[in-house]
Every structure is written in structure tokens, then in C-alpha cells.
Write a structure and sequence with these properties.
alpha/beta, 6-stranded mixed β-sheet
């Protein structure tokens, strides 16, 4: 068995549909136009089992937008189109096995620390992309030399395999799997046949010439001194046998050129080799993930923002549940004003943190950043902070945005209560829970009752939870008796002008500053009265 060069999983895993991809490779060599079918197969590849469920966090964290805006690959002035659906699937299938997370982190670290390995990884990606592009190129038999094109596919396949073999033998991380997979392919009869065919096509014979030149520089005479065919190649046959074979085919009514015969041989060699190429299609998507997240880190650095490979602790660890220095929200990276980093840390290993503060003070963006940091860190990638120490979570449940639909039956409160029920019925113990403006869609007395119920039930499922609220009086009451539920509290820090600094400190906010927010937005009695008077004047 050829080792699978899997760069995402500690235990090698082939998620792409082997049979479907094999059929697609066969059709490609026969000249069928493939289009996006390779990308579709990659995007639909299975992932190893995980307790993380994408429906609980993907939409609220805008994963599609994050990938579309911040994940790209550009090398040597060339922008490479990435498979966004594959990257979304890879991110959403977040591992809970600490060894797998560390396996991915070690690959990133080696790319960071070894420029030669990084350069080799980039070159391998380019050559893999070129190989896939050759398969997708349409062949029009009357215009394109099919044999030459298919030969290019074989040459590119060999180039990729040899690059994996020659450039990653010294790798210390999971990148060494590239060398091991290629070394196993080198030992197969299929690869030896491929190498012999390409050597034969490239170097059928050595021709030695004597050329005489005149005084004007023109050739006067050409004399062949010797013609030595490469008789040690497995595809070499004696000239008399080649003549007999062509004569026999002609007598039988088969008129085949040397090119047609060569194409038959190319197809046979490719079909025999294609099983070894199947994992390489998956490898292309996996390398995209590493190179694209490096591009995100570099873009963040240009704006003065740090990303790091954080420390991940086992889910049963008793240390702090979440610590991030200079945490920032990746969804804000492309805004005109760069996001403001802040430091967030918890004391307990399974904290429930209540976050309070004024509207537009940064509460929602903060807990969104916390969730994205957990997602990226536990995916074994860079987290959006200068330094991080996080626990492995068994899942992520995020409720930040209100999605309306024309056929919805329940009102806002009803839909929120359904989500809360889903949380406690289906969420794994030991998960991260992010809840924004819990129960703000009802009157305060009933909302506080449900809010308290949720906090009590959260304590029973051992989460790392962040919950924002505008029930400030109740939050202060909880702060006075926080030991009962093991609560921690964060509030938006305000400057002397009572404006948000987008930093967070301990405690509960004294006011939501609704009046100041209304004034900032021009919603005052004086402003609106003037607007009404102005419209009445124009109407009259």
C-alpha cells in the first residue's frame, strides 16, 4: 500500500471518493472536458468524524465570508483560485484529538522556520495546480495533438512525484509524508514504466553529426557519424521488429501512425499509474489551507496585527479555559479602520463569562473573535492573537445573528428559545458556547427568568461560555453572588468622554449609555422635531 500523503490528520485519511475520481482521471486522459468536476469532488470529500457540528456555528461566524475575503494564494505575481468549499469543509470539521491539532501545528511551524521547506511547499502547490489544470484543459482532436497533451500530463505527474520525493526527505513534521508517499510510488512497477516511457520519448537515440561550415557561416555539409538507439529502455524494440509490426497492422487494415501507437501506450501507462495520483488531488486542497492561512497572517501583519500558533490544552485540563493576548476579529480585517486588539483571559477552566456594556461598544465583535480564535486554533492553524492558551473543546455553539424568513412560524423570542433548547438537547458536554443578547426579545422580567435558567443549565454541561446581556441590574445582582454559578464578568471599558475604548475589564457595566448612543446617531427629540418641521414646511 502506498502511504497517503495526508497533511491534515494524524491518522492518514483519504476523504475523496476514490472510485469517482478514478473514473474522472480516466475520462480526462481520453479527452473529455472536465470543467469543475475535480473541484466538486474535493469539496464533497468526507472528513474524519468530529463532535463539532457546522450548523451550530458556520452562519453566525460568517465562515464563507472569512474564506472569500481573507484566504487567498498569490505567488510570483500569479493569483491562484482556491477551492472555497473545500476550505470551508476543512475548517468546519474541527478536530478534537489533540495529537491531530499538534500534527497540523508542526507543519505550520516547519514552514515558518525552514525557508527551503516553505519554498518547496509553494513549488509543489504550483506543480499540483498545473497538473490539475492539464486534466481540465479541453482537447479538440483536430486542433490539438492529443498524444503530446497526454504526454504532458505524464511528465507533470512525474515532476510532482519526484518533487515530493526529492524536497521533503529532511522534513521533521507531517510534511515528510510527501517524501514517504513518493518513495513508495517510485518502487511501483507503474512508476518505473512511466519513467521508462518518458525517457524513451525524450531520448530515443543519440545522433552524432559532422557539420562543415563555409566562410560565410552557412552549412556546406552534414555527415552522420553514428546513431545509437537507447536499447536498454524497456520500450525499445529492434528496427526489424518495428517494421514487421507496422507491416502486420497495415495488412490487417489498421493504419496507425507512430503518434497513434504512442498515445495508446500513454493511455495504458496513465491508467495504471492513476491510483497513485488520487491522493494528490486531495493534497492540493490541504496545501491550499496551509498557504491561505499564511496569507491571512501576512495580511494581518501588514495592518499591525499579530497571529500565533497558540498552546492547546487537553479538554480535561484544569488551567484557564481561554487566554488570548491582543485578540482581534478577522472579519474586521478589511475594514478601513483596523480592528482594535484586546486581551481576554478567564480564571476558571470552565468559565461562564457575562459580558456587558453599551451598544456599539464591541461586545458582539469580541465574542465573535473569541469563537473564531477557538475555531482556527483548534483547527491547528494561526489564531488571531499575539499569544494564546486555549482548551480543546468538544464543540462550538454560536448564536449571534437573527435570521428572518418569510415562512417562519415563531417570533423572535420563540426562535431564540428553540435555539436554547437545541443547545441543551444536542450540544456536547465540554463545548464552547457563545450567546449574544440572550432573551432581549421579550419583557425584562420574563427575559431575566430565562436568562437565569440558561446560566444555571450551562453550569451543568461544563462549557467555556460567553454571554452578553443588557439586563444590567440583574447582572450586578449575579456579580454579588457569582460563586454560586461560578460566573466571571467583563465590561466594556470607557474613556473619560464615556466612549468605548474597545477594551474589556472586569465587572458589570453601570449603564448601557442608550442616551449617548441615540445622541451619537442623531436620535434626539430636538433633531427629530426639526426633521418633522422641515418636512411639514416643504409640504406646505
Amino acid at each position: 500500500m502506498i502511504p497517503i500523503p495526508d497533511l491534515l490528520n494524524r491518522e492518514p485519511f483519504l476523504g475523496i471518493d476514490r472510485e469517482a475520481l478514478s473514473d474522472l482521471l480516466g475520462l480526462a486522459i481520453l479527452g473529455r472536458e472536465i470543467g469543475t468536476e475535480f473541484h466538486d469532488l474535493m469539496a464533497e470529500a468526507e472528513t474524519p468524524p468530529t463532535t463539532w457540528r457546522p450548523e451550530f456555528f458556520e452562519q453566525d461566524l460568517f465562515i464563507d465570508r472569512l474564506i472569500a475575503e481573507s484566504f487567498d494564494i498569490a505567488m510570483d505575481g500569479v493569483q491562484y483560485p482556491i477551492n472555497e468549499r473545500f476550505l470551508r469543509r476543512a475548517l468546519s470539521a474541527t478536530p478534537t484529538d489533540l495529537r491531530t491539532i499538534e500534527f497540523r501545528q508542526s507543519i505550520l511551524r516547519e514552514m515558518d522556520e525552514n525557508e527551503r521547506i516553505l519554498a518547496s511547499a509553494k513549488q509543489l502547490y504550483r506543480e499540483l495546480f498545473a497538473l490539475l489544470s492539464l486534466h481540465r484543459t479541453p482537447r479538440y482532436h483536430r486542433i490539438v495533438d492529443t498524444a503530446a497533451h497526454n504526454l504532458d500530463i505524464l511528465k507533470q505527474s512525474r515532476l510532482v512525484i519526484d518533487l515530493m520525493h526529492d524536497r521533503f526527505g529532511s522534513a521533521r513534521s507531517g510534511l515528510r509524508r510527501l517524501h514517504e508517499g513518493a518513495a513508495a510510488i517510485h518502487e511501483t512497477e507503474e512508476y518505473k514504466t512511466l519513467a521508462a516511457l518518458l525517457d524513451y520519448e525524450d531520448q530515443l537515440a543519440h545522433l552524432n553529426l559532422d557539420i562543415s561550415l563555409g566562410g560565410d557561416g552557412r552549412i556546406r555539409r552534414v555527415e552522420v557519424r553514428s546513431l545509437d538507439e537507447c536499447s536498454d529502455n524497456r520500450f525499445w524494440t529492434r528496427p526489424i521488429k518495428r517494421f514487421r509490426d507496422r507491416l502486420r497492422l497495415g495488412i490487417g487494415g489498421y493504419s496507425m501512425t507512430n503518434r497513434e501507437l504512442l498515445n495508446r501506450v500513454i493511455e495504458r501507462v496513465y491508467v495504471s499509474l492513476s491510483p497513485a495520483l488520487i491522493p494528490l488531488i486531495q493534497l492540493l486542497g490541504q496545501m491550499e489551507l496551509y498557504l491561505a492561512v499564511r496569507a491571512l497572517r501576512d495580511r494581518a501583519a501588514e495592518r499591525g496585527l499579530a497571529m500565533c500558533i497558540p498552546e492547546l490544552l487537553p479538554d480535561h485540563d484544569t488551567g484557564p479555559g481561554f487566554v488570548c493576548e491582543d485578540l482581534w476579529n478577522p472579519l474586521l480585517l478589511h475594514q478601513e479602520q483596523a480592528p482594535v486588539p484586546c486581551t481576554v483571559s478567564t480564571d476558571g477552566s470552565v468559565p461562564i463569562t457575562v459580558v456587558t456594556g453599551p451598544n456599539s461598544g464591541g461586545k458582539t465583535r469580541l465574542i465573535q473573535a473569541i469563537a473564531l480564535a477557538q475555531l482556527l486554533a483548534q483547527s491547528g492553524l494561526y489564531a488571531p492573537c499575539a499569544r494564546g492558551r486555549l482548551r480543546v473543546q468538544n464543540g462550538l455553539f454560536v448564536s449571534l445573528i437573527e435570521r428572518e424568513s418569510a415562512d417562519q412560524v415563531e417570533g423572535r423570542l420563540g426562535r431564540e428559545l428553540v435555539r436554547i433548547r437545541t443547545l441543551f438537547e444536542e450540544m456536547e458536554h465540554g463545548s464552547m458556547v457563545i450567546l449574544d443578547e440572550l432573551c432581549s426579545g421579550t419583557n425584562p422580567s420574563e427575559g431575566i427568568e430565562v436568562f437565569t435558567l440558561v446560566l444555571q443549565l450551562l453550569r451543568r454541561v461544563d462549557p467555556v461560555a460567553y454571554v452578553t446581556t443588557h439586563f444590567l441590574d440583574h447582572a450586578r445582582s449575579l456579580e454579588e453572588n457569582h460563586h454560586e454559578l461560578g460566573l466571571e464578568f467583563l465590561q466594556v471599558e470607557l474613556d473619560e468622554a464615556r466612549r468605548s475604548t474597545y477594551q474589556f475589564i472586569g465587572g458589570v457595566a453601570r449603564t448601557s449609555l442608550a442616551a449617548l448612543t441615540a445622541e451619537r446617531l442623531g436620535v434626539t427629540f430636538e433633531n427629530l422635531s426639526a426633521a418633522v418641521d422641515s418636512r411639514q414646511t416643504k409640504a406646505s
